[in-house]
Structures are given as structure tokens and as C-alpha cells.
Amino acid sequence: MIEQLTPRILENKDWATLLFVVTFAVVAMTKSAYETRFSEFSKLIFSDKYAKIYRDNNNLKSSFTIGLFFVQVISFAFFIQLTMHIFGYASKTDWILFIQIATFLLYFILAKYLIEKIVATSFNIDDFADLFNLQKVTYRTYIGVLILPINAVLFYYDNIPKIIPLAIIGVSLCLSLYSYFISIKTYQNVIFGKLFYFILYLCALEIAPYYFLYYWITKGSA
């Protein structure tokens, strides 16, 4: 009796392993090059000391911020793809999908930043917009670095409960709201002086893009 053989499909995870190694290496090198700054950065959830010390606009273009921005994009792209996989919408080993997600994130963030600069110039609030954007980038990067090791665990394990990505999204939203609270608290004098422009800025660039993105995703999946 000949036993029927079932072909075994091997998923290629080498690309993901390489990306995890590279991103962790970037975090390690950043920590080594900016030991004191990274130490304060790691305490961001417990203290706003980092936000107060590194509030100069030049920090937005520093190698510390740029290096961790790369980590942020990779981390969020992994998390989005893993969430899609857990909910049955995609494969976690599809490297083409990962590139598409990472590219979309990169263009979305950069396009949003450029539009913010244009609007801020129109409202004559350039300095405040730069400081406010630096705060957002800092906390968004912090979330990306925190999620990175979780992504590595989720990627190499199967049968992940759906509550896991939902819980991570919930915590990330809470941290984002906390970052807005810290920003408003830090720059309250500037905000109250130009409250009308700040509300317009907030609605046009902090609420509308994510609403339309959510509408586009939900409509496309319907």
C-alpha cells in the first residue's frame, strides 16, 4: 500500500528575519551612540523630561530621530501585516505586501508632514507646528520601538488570539492621546494665543487624514 504524500509548503521567513536583525541593530547602535538621550527616551512613558530637554526643532533632523524613524516605519508595517494575518486578510510572510505597506506608511507620514508645513506657514504658526510635530514624532517613535519586539514574537508564533493586536492598538491610542496632552500642556501659552488656528490645524491635519484613511480601508474591504 502506497502512502499518499502531501506536499509541504515552506513559508519564506528569511526576509523578515533579516529586517528584524537590521532594525534591532539600528536600535542598539542608536543606544550606543546616544546613551544618555536614549536612556531618557526609554522613560518617556513615565516622565516628560525627554520632551522638555530635546524640544529644539533641530532634533527633528538629528541622526537619532532619523534612525529611529526607520525603525518606526518597519515596526508599524510589520504590525499592520501581522494584524491583517491574524484576522485572516493576508499572509504574514508576503514580503511584497510588506513593501507595499511600508511604502504607503512612508509616503503617508512624509506627505502629511509636508502638508503640515504648508498649512503652518499659511497660519503663521511655523515654530509651534515644528515643536508640536517633534512631540508627535517622539511618541510615535517610542510606540514603534516598543512594538518591535512584540512583532518579532507574533511573527514566529501561530494561532495568536485576536485580542492581542486589539490590545496593542488600544495601548498605542492611549499613548498617542497622552502625547497630545503633554504637547498641549507644554505649549499651552502658544496654543491659547492662537487657539483658533490650532483648532483648524488639529481638525485638518490630525483628525481628517485618519478619518478618510479609515473610511477608505473599511469601504475597500466591504
Order of helices and strands: HHHHHHHHH
Q: Return the average pLDDT rounded to an integer.
A: 80
* Gyration radius, in Å: 20 Å
General form: globular
Q: Which secondary-structure class do the elements indicate?
A: mainly alpha
In summary, what is this structure?
The protein has helices at residues 14-33, 35-42, 49-53, 63-86, 95-123, 126-155, 163-186, 188-193, 195-221.
Q: Could you explain how this protein is built, in words?
A:
Mean pLDDT is 80; it is low at 1-10. The chain contains 9 helices and no strands. Helices cover 78% and strands 0% of the residues.
SSE map:
Layout: H1 14-33, H2 35-42, H3 49-53, H4 63-86, H5 95-123, H6 126-155, H7 163-186, H8 188-193, H9 195-221
Helix pairs in contact: 1-2, 1-4, 4-5, 4-6, 5-6, 5-9, 6-7
Core attributes:
222 residues; mainly alpha; 78% helix; globular; disordered N terminus
